Amino acid sequence: MKPTISTREHYDRLADAGHGRNDPPFMQEYMARWDGPLFYDALGDLSNADVLEVGIGTGRIARQILERGCRHLTGLDISPKTLAAAKEDLVGFANLELISADIAEFRRDVSFDVAYSVLTFMHIQDKPKALQNIVASLRPGGRVVLSIDQLSDSIDFGEWTVELSPWLPAQYLAALEGVGCDVAEPAPLIDSWTGQDGKRSDTYDECVATLISGVRK
User: Fold this and answer.
1) pLDDT digits (tens, 9 = 90+) for 74-96
2) Would the pTM of this model clear 0.85, i.e. be above it?
3) What is d(CA 95, CA 41) in angstroms, rounded to the nearest whole number?
4) Minimal CB count within 10 Å: which of 87, 131, 161, 187?
5) Is residue 187, in this structure, part of any structural domain at all?
């Protein structure tokens, strides 16, 4: 029987294996199925913005945000080994702060213009508290953008499994409205990835994630 491990151990193991580091272009395109143009459009103008990323991982998205000219980026992650990889991979950026923290316990009132998260909220159990902390950390008019995975109770990663805490898009919208956000209609993220061999992904032309966004009143 496969062991079920914690989210932190899962990402520590992936960091040990070099997951997400120095990915070739085709793999970066594969991962962009969960963000892509709609995601970056929702973030808006990042020039001179103070940005919070929840679940920074090894910095795949953070690098793009930093290169778009944000003033400062604060990246949270619960995996110390993942943060160590991000620190090494993003060493050229001085306007970066990396923090080992759970968003359900992290709050920095009215400090950010934009907060985002990609494929992290499926792991967060106390979603109401996490969303409350994110919105409280935004300045009025600040934007929150989430890419949430399709519903599943667990991830099977071959040698182990990780339990998840799925929510429906409507639950995210209700929670964000409840903590003072104007929310947009959820936007489906449709898979259009084709590999180097011309083979389409198994989920080609299907919704692989949903984009949730809101603005703090």
Assistant:
1) 999 999 999 999 999 999 999 99
2) yes
3) 22
4) 87
5) yes
